[in-house]
User: What shape does this take?
Amino acid sequence: MMACNHTFREASRRLDGMRDVWDEPAPDHSWLARHMQTVDEGWMDRMLARAAELCLAELGDATAPLGADSSGAETDRYRAVERPSPELEGFVRTEVKIYIKYHVTAVLGHQIILSTLTTPSNVADT
Assistant: This one.
């Protein structure tokens, strides 16, 4: 459900609607949010690598170009910084928005994602 870009509340509603498939209560949105925070990043990387490996094995000898892209995103989070203040002849503490970049490498034409990375916005695309 999270892969479909649903919010935690939408995912909870959809899971609740699937109750006739299994006889267990569906997790609520707060449980889903807490659980997603406990998923290890290394585990997600291994799952992505294994899924890409299986997809590439299915392609066999077929060839396709690789593509890499980076896109910036603005978050709703802020971080505290100290900046010079000419009026106060010193530094003033203020908050600035946090920006991040998503980097992805994929096999074009087959929509197979090989790797992903999230970095702070000040990281270059090299």
In short: The longest helix spans residues 41-59. The chain has three helices and three strands. The beta strands are 66-85, 90-107, 112-120. The helical segments are 8-17, 29-38, 41-59.
